[in-house]
Amino acid sequence: MRIAVVEDDDGVGDALVDALTEVGHAPVRMRRGADLLLGYHEMDVVLLDLGLPDMDGLEVLRKLRTLSSVPVVVLTARDDERSVVRALRGGADDYVVKPARLGELHARLEVAARRRRATNDTAADRLVLGDIAVDLVGRGVEIGGRDIALTTKEFDLLAHLVTRRGEAVSREQLMDAIWGDAYVAISRTLDVHMTALRSKLDRPGTIVTIRGFGYRWDT
Predict the structure, then answer these.
(1) CB atoms within 10 A of CB 79
(2) How far, in Å, CA of 58 to CA of 154, rounded?
(3) Which residues contact 126 (CB under 8 A, 6 or more apart)?
(4) Which strand (E) or helix (H) includes residue 7?
(5) d(Cα 136, Cα 141) in Å, to the nearest integer?
(6) How far from the centroid of its chain's Cα atoms is residue 34's Cα?
(7) Per residue in 91-136, pLDDT tens?
(8) 132-135 and 126-129: which strand pairing?
């Protein structure tokens, strides 16, 4: 597995990288939260310290969860109940207090990654939402049995929303998933594509705007 080791302490970070490499993984050392937010795309799982130099790890986790569902195991010296609860409620898959036993940590990383893979594997290849049918593999859309022509980006937007139907999806997550960077100034591009997609679907109320945040598929 490709594992992001987000740890600013060189002694701890180097030891984790060596240990994970020895058991066949491909760890990538990151020292700041910003490094993870820019480089998580290629990771299978994240090992996240909370005491980072540029921002608190809980804030990193919150921002990451607006962009990705990559599994996250928190590894930290914080053992207070409030931190544990905040991390788990904020989207962490597991929470381990330092010093960690390497065998246990390895097992927890594998379980987190396996659980997320199992969730992803159950996703349907074809979704039927009212009279809208979305073929996620063939990248086709039908409404009332009639084919609807979408551009590549319009379909990507649709697919991202329908596979998370009922879930609030941030503008940053959409921009990152479809254009590759949540922080580039392309919000107007997102608006244009969203307007075109809504027009072609012609189903008011299916894509709900969440003011100040993003969108939600509501059927």
Answers:
(1) 10
(2) 33
(3) 133, 134, 135, 136, 137
(4) none
(5) 9
(6) 15
(7) 898 999 998 888 889 888 988 887 766 555 445 678 888 889 999 8
(8) antiparallel
